[in-house]
Amino acid sequence: MQQKTPTVIITGAGLGGLTFYHALIKNKDKKEFNVKIFERESDPQERWQGYHIGINKLGAQSLINCLPSSVASNLQKAMPNPIPDLEHHGIQLVDHTGSLLLKPPYKPAKDVYGVANAPGFSAIITYRNRLRDVLLENVPVQWGKKCIGYEETDDGVWVLFEDGSREFCDILVGADGINSPVRKQKIPELQINDFGITQIVGDIVVPKNLLDRLIKIIGNSLFQKSIGLNGEVVFIFYRMIPIEQEQEQKDKCEPHYRMTLIFVYPTKLDDDVKNDETKVNDNDPASVINHVKHMIREFRPECELTNIILELWDLAPKTISDPKKYPFKTYDPVRRRKMQDIDPLSVNGWTSSRVTLLGDAAHAMSPVLGLGANNAIRDAEVLSQALLNYSPENYISCIKEYENEMLKRTSADVLKARSYTLNQSLPIGNKLY
To answer: Which residues form the FAD-binding domain (predicted)?
Structure first.
């Protein structure tokens, strides 16, 4: 009697879930699955995916291994080849005035394949929103389907959705983010850790003259960190590739560039800063931006780098739906967000079953080392390889093989990123580096 094709359901169409979908489809000649992917958002544009992330050697290798050639051929749309002699895709650490503190060794690469095969550390600053778009190509995501839980039976898993519907599968993969309902049911004792640190992210577009001023002070490393005296840190990601401007604006203004601007600080500083000008309201981007600027003026010396950072924050949209006509698009309203993580080995409750987790659902990480997305993509490769040996009799051993590797790898990275994040938030003089 011919066995039916086993069904795998993925909840969450983020970078990890989509990469996993592609890996299963790519390997269907070795092991065929009926793969379904569900996403709580109503459509691909509902939530802004962000301007930039760093894809390192680990992530690049797994992307290339997981993606069919038809999808991999489009990766350059999301990660344009580095511009020789102009872009340095490594990290640089400077102080609050722009003086160099640290510039770790970095192996240049000509493209994402070079990053994957580099003998030392290598990375490429990637357009996160475009990477998600590339991964969505030819994927039949079922939108507007929020998973709220599941029911395990002897024969499989019923996946339950908020709209009252349910779907049956042999394997459920929760790739549904840090607030994963799948994780909360599978391992309720695995809690989110709050750092006591706040981050504020702005995706902006920068005119060439302002970017030139910044580069003159801190150089052409595309990932910059400026460490303040009170534990506050400014992160800057960008590419030296002009954005495509609206047709009516072409030749009327100077080139503009994508930039991700992040301000990170110990949350307690909110109480230390006396700001009578405005009360911070996270539903009012203008008040959040004013708060950031007030803190920068309060804690940083008056200098050219400080002035540039203030000008950069002025470029962030001040309203949820800014009526001003820009020659480019920006999306996410600026607001304060808690920095959090999840150490998957902080509990002993992992029992392998038909239900497993992938990406932030299992091991959300501090973003400061850029390890989160890369580990989610690696999860996709490891799990897809483990499932090549799937059978109705040995599915537990396949999931266990994946979870053993994933837990060890990601717990180490969670703790490494946590230690680094907590250390950088200390006032100068208390830091360990």
So the answer is: 346-407
Name the residue type at position 121.
Answer: F
pTM recorded for the entire structure: 0.93
Within 8 A by CB and 6+ apart from 194, the residues are: 338, 339, 340
Kindly report, residue by residue over 150-192, the tens digit of the pLDDT. Answer: 999 999 999 999 999 999 999 999 999 999 999 999 999 999 9
Cβ atoms of 377 and 20 closer than 8 Å: no
Distance CA 410, CA 359 (A): 9
Cα three-residue angle 249-255-261, rounded to 5 degrees: 110
Residues 6+ apart with CB under 8 A from 319: 285, 286
Q: What is the mean pLDDT of the chain?
A: 91
Give me the numbers of helices (H) and strands (E) for the chain, helices first please.
Answer: 14, 17
Q: What is the DSSP letter of 34?
A: E
Task: Kindly write down the DSSP assignment for every residue of 196-225, as one continuous string.
Answer: EEEEEEEEEEEEHHHHHHHHHHH-SEEEEE
Between 128-136 and 15-26, two packed helices, what is the crossing angle to 10 degrees? 30
Q: Last residue of a domain, which of 296, 322, 338?
A: 338
Number of domains in the chain: 2
Radius of gyration of the chain, Cα coordinates, nearest whole angstrom: 22
Question: Which of 338, 370, 400 finishes a domain?
Answer: 338
Considering the domain architecture, whether residues 208 and 326 belong to the same structural domain is answered as yes
DSSP string of 312-344, one letter each residue: HHHTS-SSTT--S--SS---PPP-EEEEEE--T
pLDDT at position 429, please?
A: 57
Q: Is the pLDDT of residue 432 over 70?
A: no
